[in-house]
Design a protein that fits this description.
The complex is a heterodimer of chains A (about 300) and B (about 750). With about 300 residues, chain A is mostly helical. Chain A is built from 12 helices and no strands. Chain A is about 80% helix and about 0% strand. Chain A is flat and about 105 Å long. Chain B is α+β, with helices and mostly antiparallel strands. Chain B has 4 domains: about 100 residues; about 90 residues; about 150 residues, D-Maltodextrin-Binding Protein, domain 2 (3-Layer(aba) Sandwich), CATH 3.40.190.10; about 220 residues, D-Maltodextrin-Binding Protein, domain 2, CATH 3.40.190. Classes of the chains: A mainly alpha (about 300), B alpha+beta (about 750). Chains A and B meet through helix 1, helix 3 and helix 11 of A and helix 1, helix 5, helix 19 and helix 20 of B.
């Protein structure tokens, strides 16, 4: 009798669970539908678009668009510029931000004023930043006027091989504050006891930094690097506002290429370029994750 | 347990509702319009006003239109007047016998209204001219609907009219008040109100110009003021208060645009209707709310031609439309728009016509096509109008629609980069459609008809065009039939005392460079050369022109005719669409105009400037219907100037060209003296245009049409890059070589991207 009662109860519980499960799925369906419709389906649609000749005929051409894009001189220029820019600006953004965070973490006078100073660029609207940069670096701008006062010849900052320098400065000016805050938060979370023990064991400041702090900061470094990498692609916005659709070739980025392909209705080349860029991003970020896993494994266990 | 069930039920209902919203877009026919939407069915009243007839005044009263017209009989050389009553619902016309009162020959019935007794009031003005001035009289005639005079009164004195003032308008508020608008040479306007006995009720002075006068359903008086200083930007709607002798503050109605055509009508619940040339609204001036009644084009009416309109008690709309013919004269028609629903309209296949801007002639063509076709109906998508504040957004949306599933069936290709669209496979090949139609290719200009051909496929049709070319003195251009940029500059430098043309550095770069881009760009290899001597010399030559246009207000400005006559200028940028324009050009060059063509590497230099270019979307499911519209554009109804009032272009059909030449060379004599057709003015010269002179230019006109071999269709992006960088050289900031190096760098990038 008891056995029967127990099995009946179990069956009823199972039925109840099953019903609950089905009801949960039904409630989740609208959201899942939305995610599929607006995120997953477009992703596959882009892949499909990159493998047809045009949206009218829709003839399947497999990798032809990828071959055309990768062989295109403008795309090669854009990819090269983007890699160079990211290769220079991102490490600088990470290293300089870390140095600033370390500096502001120590007891220096006017610490909070310095912090505010570095955070202020984050609050400035893009249009204002572009305006400021134009006033500074225009051919007849303030920087050139000062150079003339110093008996130097003017430089066409936006339309010469010096243009990437201006863009890197702009990127760092905009990004350092945010990265610095992240590092400061990470530094404050390092257990003080370990640093005290290291000090007591006569470790030098550099050793403490390299062997202790850096290990604890590895996850944050990874995060900051990824964010900086993503932000380095967004700098297209400022370059576009400063120099238009077709800038000097030294600051012609991948987004310029893709933006122009969109304007020309060439969605096939746009999709192919976007997929190649995504694959490159996945590889780079994958390598970074592996690196972080290796260096930070003893911290994260 | 019960509450759990209720919660589940609620959740299920929510889910179903959220999913159901996705399917609410389904409609009945392919128009996308809800069948219950209010629509208007046009009924055209066959009313002939005759040749040489002009409308003096029109007023609506209790479902009837009263129209006062004057006519001129060329045979008897006499004028006559007529007062007609038209029943709006049926179009039945009755002529009111006005023989009982004889108006003077020089009388003008400028306004009509009705008083409370139901009698008609006619405002009759006369002018007597002598050598130095004129005197005017103004009388108010009250007549019955049988044409019997009830009273006449001279109102000039009570209105305070003198030699410096004039009567601009009159209206009745239906409550015994007559309101008059009086203009003055002193720059002020007055609004004067009289009672039914002709006694002054009040006068309000307005310090600027009164554009319109209208009365609301409540009998309140409103004006639309207009600022002489600010022009249309200074428009203001105000209510008149005769008790205080002042106007109220401006009433803001967002549909009153400073641009375009704004006019007012009467009727409806508020008594005031507003047309902006595209849409008809009923407005409530107290609450400033507007009710959109209809888009004129949806009722097959060209809104800009609507002169008078109103709304009847049953909700039907009446209108009188006047179309001015390109050959002179006008035609009038009265239309009743019967209120119905979209579902009640005749079922037809809907097509879309999409363009950045839809010109009047195309709008009129679409209206005519819609009236005649019982299978298809075209809806217009005017992208620039839809994105009035953002032209680039309109272009982007148009491009997205073309490439996506929302492409218009018929595409107006002006400004859309036709080569790009052809390369993307967006446009259908029209050759098979033409071959299967009744169109005979030999009836059309081959060079124009096939202007948009590529690889034996035809992608667009040009229904009308103009010619652009350069014009100079025949004597100075002796021995030169065509040239390139270098040769032209060398020729100009052989006249050191003259300037090539009236231009700025930028406009000259535009003229010289865009036609010669192939000299500097090799699209096959991607090589560009803007740092060579040739381009640098063009820039340096252009720089000699400066960046300021010759200001019209400049007292030292040389007139155009004087400039060419006295050798200050060598070439004129010519735009030809008629024989008359050739007479004017000939006068500018003192009878020695030579059409030389623009400087190009290959071809004649005579450019085809399409009035529009029409293609069919490859995605269209109704290519037959879309092509039916193209057939209409190539038919006599559109091509012939006598049938198409908007024919301000050179037609592409041979017979239509012959027709305009025959009309332009038809000499009109009077007592052995030839009448001038019209006069054309240009800056410091006015030319009387004679048909006999037109004959002298027929051969050259034909030569230019047949020689036109290149579309005025250029790569705007390259031009923008060149213009942008050349500006810094023209401003003196950079050397020519420095600017050219940047141009080369940026253009190379563009060329590589597009190869």
């Amino acid at each position: 009798m008891k056995k029967n009662l127990r099995s009946l109860r179990k069956k009823s519980e199972l039925k109840h669970k099953e019903r609950g499960k089905r009801f949960s799925i039904a409630c989740l369906l609208p959201s899942v539908f939305g995610v599929v419709l607006f995120f997953i389906a477009p992703f596959f649609y882009v892949i499909y678009y990159s493998m047809i000749d045009n949206p009218i005929n829709r003839e399947f051409v497999f990798m032809d668009n990828f071959a055309i894009v990768s062989g295109n001189a403008a795309f090669q220029q854009a990819a090269s510029n983007t890699l160079k820019f990211s290769g220079i600006a991102v490490p600088l953004a990470v290293i300089l931000a870390l140095m600033l965070a370390l500096m502001l973490n120590s007891r220096i006078p006017f610490r909070s004023q310095f912090r505010t100073f570095f955070l202020t660029p984050m609050m400035v609207p893009i249009a204002s930043i572009v305006l400021i940069w134009q006033v500074l670096f225009h051919f007849n701008g303030i920087v050139n006027e000062m150079m003339l006062l110093g008996n130097m010849t003017k430089i066409d900052w936006f339309k010469s091989d010096y243009a990437p320098i201006v863009v890197v400065i702009l990127f760092l000016w905009k990004t350092l504050g945010y990265n610095m805050i992240l590092f400061m938060a990470a530094l404050s979370s390092i257990p003080k006891e370990i640093i005290e023990v290291a000090s007591m064991e006569s470790a030098r400041p550099f050793q403490i930094f390299w062997l202790v702090k850096l290990r604890y900061l590895s996850a944050t470094i990874l995060f900051v690097t990824i964010m900086s990498l993503i932000n380095s692609f967004k700098v297209f916005r400022e370059i576009y506002l400063l120099t238009g659709d077709y800038p000097f070739d030294s600051v012609y980025m991948l987004q310029h290429y893709m933006n122009n392909m969109f304007g020309r209705l060439d969605y096939q080349r746009l999709s192919a370029a976007a997929i190649m860029m995504s694959i490159a991003m996945v590889i780079i970020i994958g390598v970074m994750f592996l690196t972080e896993n290796y260096f930070g494994r003893d911290i994260e266990g | 347990m019960r509450s759990k069930t209720i919660k589940k039920l609620i959740a299920i209902i929510l889910i179903i509702t959220m999913q159901a919203t996705l399917v609410t877009a389904c409609r009945g026919d392919n128009s996308g319009i809800d069948p219950d939407t209010i629509a208007f069915l046009p009924i055209y009243h066959d009313i002939e006003f005759g040749d040489n007839t002009w409308l003096q005044s029109i007023v609506e009263h209790e479902g009837f239109l009263y129209i006062y017209t004057s006519s001129w009989d060329e045979a008897t050389m006499e004028s006559s007047s007529k007062l007609s009553q038209v029943e709006i619902a049926t179009g039945a016309i009755t002529e009111i016998d006005i023989s009982a009162f004889a108006l003077p020959d020089n009388a003008n019935v400028s306004n009509m209204a009705f008083n409370q007794q139901g009698n008609m009031l006619l405002l009759v003005s006369t002018w007597e001219f002598d050598d130095f001035s004129y005197t005017s009289t103004h009388a108010l005639y009250e007549i019955t609907l049988e044409g019997q005079i009830v009273s006449t009164s001279d109102i000039g004195n009570v209105l305070g009219l003198d030699d410096n003032s004039w009567l601009q308008g009159m209206n009745s508020n239906g409550q015994g008040m007559l309101v008059f608008v009086i203009g003055s040479n002193m720059g002020t306007y007055n609004l004067v109100a009289l009672n039914s006995e002709g006694e002054l009720i009040g006068r309000i002075e307005y310090s600027d110009y009164i554009d319109s006068l209208f009365i609301s359903a409540d009998g309140d008086v409103y004006i639309m003021g207009f600022s002489r200083m600010m022009g249309s930007m200074g428009r203001g709607l105000k209510k008149a208060d005769f008790a205080t002798g002042s106007f109220g503050s401006d009433i803001e109605i967002s549909e009153i645009s400073p641009y375009g055509n704004t006019s007012f009508g009467s009727g409806g619940t508020t008594g005031i209707l507003l047309s902006d040339g595209n849409t008809l609204y009923e407005i409530d001036l107290e609450s400033t709310e507007t009710l959109r009644l209809l888009d004129w084009i949806d009722a097959d009416i060209l809104g800009d031609n609507v002169r008078n309109f109103g709304i009847l008690e049953n909700g039907d709309i009446w209108l009188m439309s006047q179309t001015y013919m390109s050959q002179g004269g006008s035609s009038m028609e009265i239309v009743t728009l019967k209120r119905t629903t979209h579902g009640e309209l005749p079922r037809r296949q809907y097509l879309t016509y999409g363009g950045m801007w839809v010109s009047q002639d195309i709008k009129a063509a679409i209206i005519n096509f819609n009236k005649r076709s019982d299978r298809y109906r075209i809806q217009i998508v005017d992208y620039a109008n839809s994105f009035s504040d953002d032209y680039q957004a309109a272009v982007n949306q148009f491009r997205i629609d073309i490439a996506g599933n929302n492409s218009p069936d018929i595409i107006n290709l002006a400004g859309m980069g036709v080569s790009q669209l052809i390369n993307k496979g967006v446009l259908a090949d029209l050759n098979p459609l033409i071959d299967n139609s009744n169109i005979n290719r030999a009836d059309y200009l081959d060079n124009i008809l096939n202007a948009y051909s590529k690889d034996d496929k035809l992608y667009a049709i040009i229904p009308g065009f103009a010619i652009t070319t350069l014009i100079g003195h025949g004597e100075k251009l002796a021995g030169i039939d065509r040239w390139n940029v270098t040769e032209m500059i060398a020729w100009a430098e052989s006249f050191p005392e003259a300037t090539l043309m009236r231009a700025t550095a930028s406009s000259l770069m535009y003229t010289l460079v865009y036609l010669a881009l192939d000299r500097f760009i090799n699209w096959e290899t991607g090589e560009v050369d803007f740092t060579g001597n040739e381009f640098i010399s063009i820039m340096e030559f252009a720089a000699t022109f400066g960046e300021q246009w010759d200001d019209w207000g400049n007292p030292d400005r040389i007139g155009t005719h004087e400039g060419f006559r006295d050798g200050h200028y060598l070439l004129l940028d010519g735009y030809l669409y008629s024989l008359e324009s050739m007479q004017l050009n000939d006068a500018l060059f003192d009878g020695d105009a030579k059409y030389i063509g623009a400087p190009v590497e290959n071809g004649s230099g005579i450019m085809i400037n399409p009035s529009t270019a029409i293609g069919i979307s490859n995605r269209s499911k109704h290519k037959d219907g879309a092509f039916a519209f193209i057939e209409y554009l190539l038919s006599d109804d559109f091509q012939s100037k006598s049938k198409n009032p908007f024919s301000y272009f050179i037609p592409v059909k041979h017979s239509a060209i012959e027709e305009i030449i025959a009309e332009a060379t038809n000499v009109q004599m009077n007592d052995g003296i030839e009448w001038s057709r019209t006069s054309w003015g240009y800056d410091d010269i006015t030319v009387e245009i004679f048909s006999s002179r037109n004959k002298e230019f027929v051969d050259e006109f034909y030569r230019l049409i047949m020689a036109a071999d290149e579309l005025q269709d250029y790569d705007e992006q390259i031009i923008n890059i060149i213009q942008e960088e050349a500006e810094s050289f023209f401003a003196g900031s950079k050397s020519a070589m420095a600017a050219a190096e940047i141009i080369e760098n940026r253009v190379r990038l563009y060329v590589n991207e597009n190869r």
